[in-house]
Amino acid sequence: MKSIRVLDSHTGGEPTRLVLDGGPDLGTGPLAERAARFRTHFDAYRSAIVNEPRGSDTIVGALLVPPDRAGCTLGVIFFNNVGLLGMCGHGTIGLMASLAHLGRIQPGRVAIDTPVGAVSAELHPDGAVSVDNVAAYRQARGVAIDVPGHGTVRGDVAWGGNWFFLVEEHGLPLELAALEALTDFTWRVRQAVNTQGYPAVDHVELFAPSPRAGIACRNFVLCPGKAYDRSPCGTGTSAKLACLAADGKLAEGAAWVQESIIGSTFTGRYRWHDRTKGEIAPTVTGTAHVMAEATLLFDARDPFCWGIRTQP
Ligand code: PYC
């Protein structure tokens, strides 16, 4: 029987399933090319690892691969219930905590290759992890989208390792009690954004003040497969920092504490990467906890051996 060894962690409530061995052999070359190979030839692995019955819509998988970019010591390709992610902030924090648990890294920095660029992650002595993400920027400001059944919704389109539509004014309470309404609204926004000029946007992020002192704001992030991010979303926080920097609302180096819908937090900071292009170098800090070590078993007689594929 085929088997795949995994280590599960969560970062602020959002799970990461790290594939240690038994995953698909994607060969060599740039990670973007290997990610394309994963998508085209090995999608069954993706589904089998993160989808039901072994997984759930919320799990993000992390496939460890040899790096391609000079100076990187490892490579990772993140994936979810419906496809691949460019980068994943909570997943990188989970990856670092998992490698520390396995004794493979000590406090210090690791340069990591991803399909969208090299990132650098630092494991701190207390177990927290800071991720120096790929450069983030706002592509468009105050875009008006006509959302059927709702009306006009304005938001910014920004890159933080994935594409986001960021909405400040939405009129919904960012509370778990409103989860259904939040999911329904953000899904409709996503579809409208995709058909009204921004087909690459696959995350929608809403903001509201936090009821807790010392927190800059709360977010709700709808991920590509219609699950909401339990963490404050590392790439979403990077996209937010890019918008704040572009608007002159956050100074270089100042801390931005981003709270998720379940109350977990990341601390974000930025440095200008290229001010003329509006590109920032974001750093997102958070903590992950290891939860399970497991061997996934693949029985050829099992009709759901390769997972139940969901396409919302
Ligand atoms: O933390 O970047 C992130 C992320 C993306 C999707 C889920 N989490």
Description of the structure:
The protein is α+β, with helices and mostly antiparallel strands. Helices cover 20% and strands 38% of the residues. It has 5 helices and 17 strands. It has a 17-stranded mixed β-sheet that branches. Pyrrole-2-carboxylate binds at residues 14, 60, 85, 88-90, 162, 223, 229, 231, 233-235.
Overall geometric form: globular
Strand content: 35-45%
Number of helices: 5
Radius of gyration: 19 Å
Residue ranges: pLDDT <50 for 5 or more in a row?
none
What features would you highlight for this structure?
binds pyrrole-2-carboxylate, 17-stranded mixed β-sheet, 312 residues, alpha+beta
Topology of helices and strands:
Layout (H helix, E strand, L loop, with lengths): L1 E10 L2 E8 L9 H11 L1 H8 L9 E6 L8 E6 L4 E2 L3 H13 L6 E7 L2 E7 L5 E4 L4 E11 L3 E9 L3 E5 L11 H17 L7 E6 L8 E6 L11 H13 L9 E4 L5 E10 L4 E8 L1 E11 L14
Parallel strand pairs: 2-3, 4-6, 11-12, 13-14
Antiparallel strand pairs: 1-2, 1-17, 3-4, 4-5, 6-7, 7-8, 8-16, 9-10, 10-11, 12-13, 14-15, 15-16
The structure holds pyrrole-2-carboxylate (PYC).
Quick structural gist:
This protein has 312 residues and is of the alpha+beta class.
